[in-house]
């Protein structure tokens, strides 16, 4: 068919030839999406930390009530189990806090990247404006020179 000739492939835009501001706009959108996702993850992480703290405090309270109701020698094995469980839960809380720190750093990096892209976009827009002005000046001077030429 006539639309399948060698010229058909050339009509499709090559991503490498997209205008820089188009690419930057796409990156801007991706960065905003990532920032939103990071904020949501951050809220979720804080909720998990709160929940773990609540579980730990309830667990401690129950263990204390249990220990108060027993004599010294009966309390010994319960106390050992409590210490083991307590250590496990606290190490999980520590791991979650470490994850939180990693996420906080990732959010910072994303923010810095976003500002770099914004800065680059502003530079490119300024450069584009200057190039357009130069182009219009050179067109005007070319037209003036053509008028000066004898027929």
TrEMBL record:
Which InterPro entries does the entry mention?
Answer: SIKE
Any stretches that span the bilayer, and where are they?
A: none
Recorded hits in Pfam families, A to Z, give:
SIKE (PF05769)
Print the keywords alphabetically: Coiled coil
What positions belong to coiled-coil segments?
114-141
Per the record, the similarity remark reads: Belongs to the SIKE family.
Q: Which PANTHER family match?
A: SIKE FAMILY MEMBER, SUPPRESSOR OF IKBKE 1
State the name under which the record lists this protein. Suppressor of IKBKE 1
Q: Which organism is it from?
A: Cnemophilus loriae (Loria's bird-of-paradise)
Task: Tell me what gene encodes this.
Answer: Sike1
């Amino acid at each position: 068919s006539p639309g399948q000739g060698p010229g058909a492939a050339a009509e499709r835009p090559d991503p490498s030839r997209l205008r820089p501001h188009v690419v930057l706009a796409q990156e801007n959108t991706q960065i905003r999406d990532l920032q939103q996702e990071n904020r949501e993850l951050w809220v979720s992480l804080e909720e998990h930390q709160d929940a773990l703290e609540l579980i730990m405090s309830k667990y401690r309270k129950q263990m204390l009530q249990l220990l108060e109701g027993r004599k010294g020698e009966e309390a010994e094995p319960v106390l050992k189990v409590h210490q083991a469980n307590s250590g496990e839960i606290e190490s999980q809380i520590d791991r979650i806090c470490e994850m939180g720190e990693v996420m906080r750093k990732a959010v910072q990096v994303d923010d810095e990247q976003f500002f770099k892209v914004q800065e680059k976009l502003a530079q490119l827009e300024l450069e584009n404006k200057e190039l357009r002005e130069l182009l219009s000046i050179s067109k005007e001077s070319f037209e003036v020179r053509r008028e000066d030429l004898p027929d």
